[in-house]
Each structure stands twice: as C-alpha cells, then as structure tokens.
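Posting this for the archive.
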Amino acid sequence: MTARIPEWKLMGSLLRVTRVKIVNMKNWVKRALVAACAAVVAVLVLASCGITGSDDTGAAAAMKGFASALSKQDAGGAAQFTTAPGQAGDALTATLQAMGARSVLAEVHDPVEYSDGTASFALKYTWSWGKGRTFETTSNGTARHLSTGWKVTWEPSIIYPGLPVGGMLREVRTDATPAPSVRSRTGKVFMYLQPVNDIILDPARTPDTANSARALARTIAPIAPLITSDVINGRLAEANGRAITAVTLRDTDMEVLAGDPARVAGVTVRRSGALVMADRRLMSPLESGLTNYWQAIRDATAGWQVQMVGPGLQPRKLVGDQGPAGPSVFTTVDQGLQLTLGDAAVEVGQPATILALDAASGAILAMAQNTYAAQRNINVDATYPVGTTLNPVFEAVSRAARDNQATADATLDRLGLGVQFTVPGASAPTPGQPGVTTVDFRPGQSSASMMNMAALGVALARGGAGQFSSVAPYVIKGVPTKVVSGSLGDIDPALINDVRRAMAATARTGDASDLTRAPGLRALVGTNGPQGPGWFVGIQGGKVIVVYTEGPKSGTAALQVAQKYFTIR
C-alpha cells in the first residue's frame, strides 16, 4: 500500500517547482531582452552613420541640391528639393531679395541618414556684400524619404533658427543719428532731414486712372494747387504704366489736405525721410545740388544691419555695424537774400532764373527761379546763346589780343567764359557743353552758362576793387570748384577797365538806364533776338547779379526781374 503524501507536503513541492520555473522563465526573458536590445543598438549604430561623401544616397542628393540652388540664389530651384515647394519658394525668394547679397554660400555639414527613412543635417550660410560685410549662420534641417524620393523637410527655421512662418531675413542700410544738416553762411540751419510722405499713384491698381487723377488732385489742392489732374496725367503718360510720385508732403501738409489720399483708388502713402528747407517759404535750384552733396556724406558714413523680421515681431538685429555721423554742410547761402531772389523770379510770366554772388570772393549767395524755368529744367550748368550780351567783352578782348586767336582764347578763359565749372553743391559735370571756347566775334553763335556769366561778373567786380584776377564760384565752404577746359588767372587791368566803362555806360544811358535803386550799377544786357534768351549781368552793392530769361521780349523780362531785385533787396 502506497503511503499517502500529506497534502501540505504536496502543495509545498508544487510551489517549489513553480518557483523554479518562474525564476528560469524570468532569466530567459531577461537574456532575450538583452539580446534584442543589443541587436537594436547594433542596427541603429549601423544605420546612423554619416553620409558625407555618399553621393549615391537620395538623402545626400536632396541636401546638396538644396544647398547648391541656394548658393546660386535660385529660390525656385531650391524649393523643388523640399516637401513644400510653394511655401519654400515664397519664403526663400523673400529672404534672397531682401538680403540682396553679392554672393551666398550654402554648405551641408554633418549629414546623418536613419533607417526609418529620415535624415538630419546642418546648413551653414555665408552671406557676403563686399567691403568686409559678411554674415555667417548655421541652421539645422531634416529630410524625409517620400514616395517621390528624398525631400528636405520645409521649415522656415532652415533659413535661420527661430524664423517664424511668414518671416524673412533682410539686409538694410543704417544711418547715424543725428543726421547732418545743411547750414547757411551764418551757421543757421538751411536744410535738414525730416519725415515726408510720398503720394504715389499706381495706374495698375485702379480701374479708372483718369478718375483717380482727378480725385487725387482735389485731395491735395489745399497744399499743392499746381499739381492738377492734367499734371498728374502727363506724368503718368511719361511713366508708361509705372507708378508715379504725384507730390511729396511734410506731416504738417498732410493735416490740411481735403481728405485722405490713401482712400483714392490706386494711391498709396509711403513714409520716408528727405532733406527739406528749414524755411518752407524758400525754394531754390541749389536744393538739388546741396542734397546730392549731403547724400554723398550720408552714403560715405552709412552702416548696415541684417535683421530678422516676421508678422507681429519687431525687427531683430542679427549683425551689423554703424559708425559716427558725418559733418554738417556749411554753405555760403544767404537765407534772406534767397527770399528776395525768389520774389524777383516770379515777377514775370515766362522762364526766369536769377543768381547772386559775393563780388569779392565768388561765393554763391542765392539762386531762384520761377515755375516756368523749373519746368524747362534751366540750370547753372547748361549753356545758352548769349546774343549781343557779351559784345562789349568781345570787343575789349579783340583789342587787347590784337586779333590773335590764341591770346583771345586764353583771355576768355581767365575771364571765366572759356572754361567749364563743376561747383560741388550747385552743379554737375556737363561734358560736351563747355562755355565759350573760341572767339569768332560773331556773338549770335556764342553760348555761355549762368556760371560762366557769374564768373565773368565776379572777375570784373574784383578788377574794380584792384584785384585783377579771376576766381571760381563756389557754394560749399572749404570745397573748391573744379575748373576744366582752360585756366583762370590774372587779367590785364586795361581790359577790365575797358569792359567796366562799357558796363557803366549801359547802366547810365543804355538798356539798363531805367533801373532804379541801384546806385553805381554796372551792367551787361542783351538778347539773342526777339525770341530770346535774354541776359542781365550786373555789379552793384558788393554783389554780382545774373538773370537769365527765355521767351518773347526776354531782354525786357530780364530787366524786370533785376528791377524787382533792386526794389526789394
């Protein structure tokens, strides 16, 4: 008979067996997990190898193609290597255009391809604008293997870390503050930088250009009545479909308009900065030349900056440099005299320009012209027929030179007639348009610029003061005028006195004898026939006055302008 095993012993044995099995099972599972993990790690280690130099992989080709297109500044081409060509193209185009770099170098670094069909890489950019201006940055990107092949995952941050959707990088010019100003002869501010509003009409943005022109003219009429719809339409016709700036207004001007220009179809208002007259009553052809000189100083001292911009973000500076502001421009302009010349120029209803200089130094004190002259683009550089105006000079030169052509030519040069001036702040070079370069004593075939006539007047005035030498006109203190096509210099006193006697006779009993309030006046007056132009060159009160007019009876018009000047000076 088999002995019966007590139940408690049987249960103990079963428990021991089960415990052993469980322990063994745990050990097996543990070994299996360790082995599995080791295998995965091995796979990952093998699959995460860098792919630099592995040009046969699709990931490498996509990365390098993207970088190569960026280096060529080909936004569209780079976008085709991304997962979102449309979005990428827009964003890359915006940044490339706003950066305006001379060259861009995009380089792929640390490319890694994974077994799950993804890859990662770094993209180093080197932006260059020349003159030592460069910007280097590195961003991180990823790539994915899609049904269409490997593509760079599009994210704006691939351009620059943290760049938001709709954002871009841009390179901008910076200018030091405070901006230099333009000063008068007394040191008072004559012109200064001020915010202005460009009123722009774009015919492509309005269905009815003529109606927009009429509406805009009505809106700006309180401050710019001369900018009529006809004027606007004329400018549009000349622009051949391009947008035009109808007028530029100061902030105070905007407050008195008949409405908001931006509400007119096709019109936008663009804020900018411009050099303007401190005294808004002043207008002068000198404004353009002085602005150009001032701008050259601003350009020479300009800095630069790369910014990150985006919707709702303040521009963030990434790199840049800005030095100190340039010096102010000190001129010889007399603001009070400028007002006087402005009043004199509007005395006649035909083109008229008037120039005033210091008789001893040749410093330009003021210059003004009326609207008619401005529309004709009359300036101090252009040459115009002198007609009979210089007959007394030609006759005196002929006598002094004894009809020797070379001597006569050299004499005219020294008088300022046979040379060409470039006056910084007042004029620009005019190649092919010299003053009187030969003397043939046929006045109807001779031409001179207002600057030539001004130099002549100063030379004659200096001779009257015992200084028998000529000087070049100038307007910026310490900045000499360039003289070409001849040389200024000493002048025969007999010649000077000969011309001055003729000028005195003209003022006393000749064509200028009707001028009043001009004691001691000496003048040259003449025309180039009934249709002009007309000239007046006067020496009086320590100043040289040059008047140029065009149109019928221009000689009389020149005298009217001169008379107005002598009346209100």
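Residues 217 and 226 are 9 Å apart (CA to CA). The chain has 15 helices and 21 strands.
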